[in-house]
Amino acid sequence: MKVWPLAFSEGDLAAARAQMGFSLAWHIVVACLGVGLPLLTLAMEWYGIRTGDPAHRLLARRWARGMGVLFAVGAVSGTILSFEMGLLWPGLMGRFGQVIGLPFAMEGFAFFLEAVFLGIYLYAWDRLPPRRHLLTGVPIVIAGTLSAFFVVCANAWMNQPRGFTLRPDGTLADVSPWVALINPASPPQSVHMILAAFMVASFATASVYAVALLRGRNDAYHRAGFLLPFSFGALVAPFQLVVGDWVARFLAHYQPVKLAGIEGVFRTGSHIPLTILGAAPGNDRLEYGLEIPSGLSFLVGFSPETVVRGLNEVPRDQWPVVTAIHLSFDVMVGVGMLLIAMGALLLLGWWRARRTGRDLMALRGHRVFLAVAVLCGPAAVVALECGWTVTELGRQPWIVYGVMLVREAVNPAPGLATGLWLVLAVYTAMTVATVYVLRRLVRTTPVPIAPQESDVERFPVT
Amino acid sequence: MLALMWVGLTCYALFGGADFGAGLWDLLAGRSRQGLPQRRLIEHSIGPVWEANHVWLIFVLVLLWASFSPVFAAVLSTLYVPLTLTALGIIARGAAFAFRKASTELWQQRLFGGCFALSSVVTPFFLGTVAGGIASGRVPPGLARGDTVTSWLNPTSALGGVLAVLACAHLAAVYLCADAVRAGEPGLARGFERRAMLSGLLSGLVALAGIAVLHADAPQLFHGLTHRGLGLVIVSAVAGLAGLGLLATRRHLLARVASALAVAAVLWAWGAAQYPDLLVPGTTVAETASHESVLTACLIATGVGAVFLLPSLWMLYTTFQRPGGAGASPVTGAPAGGTPAGGRDGTG
């Protein structure tokens, strides 16, 4: 299968992986905020129109400005990724570019629509009547969700390559991009990702206002800024648990090696325990973890007798690094549980507030709740990164599962390491600037984006 | 599919290119206070549309990789240096522009503005060098088979880079003339007319000098341009001159059309000169094209996408090309300083 020359150095391969991983890890956060924030903003704008409360309208305005910044940053970091696909992995693109071109082409259109309507939404706030303006935001949400779907389909294809036959000489036959698009991994992976995007955006936004509430700024503005996104995130979280289970079942069936890596199953067998935390120092045995006897067998097949396939079924050089993906997985699940618990607590709080007739922010224990809620934002981001780590590292050493190794795809040109340092430097600067600008957006009185914005003058914040 | 890609590339050059050019004029607008009106006009003109314009590039990249994957791999692996720099330029430009808009203090606006303006010049330059490298046959098929340095540091690439920057500058200046008039700033319009004339003349001169460069450095391209592409080259020259004439007589909108045509014709001339080779010499469209099923799928996706996209784009450009908008909007018609949300957009 070695069609491409392998004239690269190991250092350059590591650099290329580091660069791709870094840019993706960066983009995934911004992209999630970019998918989730428009929905929150629209909800808040709609709410503001209904209540007529300037606090709600101002929140919508500010979030919209945040959307503008995040979309711009997401757009450029996404463009970089499409460059990097070719710059770093020409082996993948040269052979399989045509198979996965379709989702990217469709993503391009979805993204285009998103950009167009974002331009209208942000700049025409006062040029359009409120309801029509609200409507111009709807395509942003739909297109954002669709682009997430298409991109994740392409990634899912790397896990479940379909829609082509590989001839012995390395060329492709019977290419069907539609089959490639809707591969078995697409539905579970994309739904999991889209829900994750909504959760990250919700909890991260709520975090900001939880800080303000903790500092005693218990007014309509900060309450709405906290409660709307937090409730939405809490609403989505239980569904994510169900979808996560679906993904795990998918893995058990289609990518048993990845599941074995995630759970540290080195030998096929029944009565496989579910190990929580722990590490596999020699990558041959999971130690120091908390074992629930027959737990994994039970989860996979609802019976301790269920046989779970282990890493021993494939050659050792095809094993992923168990410690990394096992711990990432556990962190992701742990955070998910925390978020669900927080949602339940909020529900309980509402019930208590109704029953006792007291204010939600006057209940006993609300400060502890808020303090944990502050952490929920960063925790959701951590869970996101962990989940992504699991799916990417769990696929190693394959770039296309079972078909092409990562090392076969890398650009053999010299000097990739230099590119890595350049990219790191630029991204660091961009991170600092993004965080700085977003923080200022929350604090300062908004300056109009477009000169016609009257809301800013009509609803000043003090 | 090839035509579609070339349309995308043309759109990117005409719309995205103008945004880059606007960045160049932003750079040359002078000190903070002096340059303020110009910068404001530039920001106001490109603010709502630059992201949409930028997507043309993604569109071209994606179509290239879906339809001609081996060419995509060859170009990106050999020309990875200028393309990485282009990518960084794109980051710096897009992010800095958004940051500048969102920041309020002068030093921040200066910092982000400088970043935006500088990368607006650097990015088209490197894209031009990439075009030069491909056009002069310095990208062989295969992975990183070409020289990673001389594939973009060569006379044709230098020509491509300089021409790209000048053409962007010219387009931007011509577009901004009309925008300035609409914004009620005739003084600014005069300034941009001068700049448009200057950059137009410079582009013409560089293109003339380019004939000699191409003759020596890229004989195959030269041959193509002087035979199959000749008509388009002439169209470009005539349109360019006509554009300058229209500018001199202050017919800004017509000048827009003419200068856009001049730039588009150069691109199409290049395409015509090189056809059917995608990589000179000898890697043809037919050899590298993807399977029929992929091309069909992409065409379907493009068709469906266009059905949604074209009306939206039309809405975008018309929403912001209408004068003012303030008077026409019912929102600003609400009682000034009245109760929040008034009666109209209340709970009704």
From TrEMBL, chain A:
A GO molecular-function annotation: oxidoreductase activity, acting on diphenols and related substances as donors, oxygen as acceptor
Q: Which UniProt keywords apply?
A: Cell membrane, Electron transport, Heme, Iron, Membrane, Metal-binding, Transmembrane, Transmembrane helix, Transport
InterPro entries reported in the protein's UniProt record: Cyt-d_ubiquinol_oxidase_su_1 (IPR002585)
Q: What is its main location?
A: membrane
GO CC annotations on file:
cytochrome complex; plasma membrane
Q: How does it sit in the membrane?
A: Multi-pass membrane protein
> In the UniProt record, does the keyword Membrane occur?
yes
Q: Which domain of life is it from?
A: Bacteria
List GO BP terms, alphabetically: aerobic electron transport chain
Membrane-crossing residue ranges in chain numbering: 24-47, 68-89, 101-122, 134-158, 193-214, 226-248, 324-348, 368-390, 419-438
Q: Where in the cell is it found?
A: Cell membrane
The record's similarity note reads: Belongs to the cytochrome ubiquinol oxidase subunit 1 family.
The protein here is known as Cytochrome ubiquinol oxidase subunit I
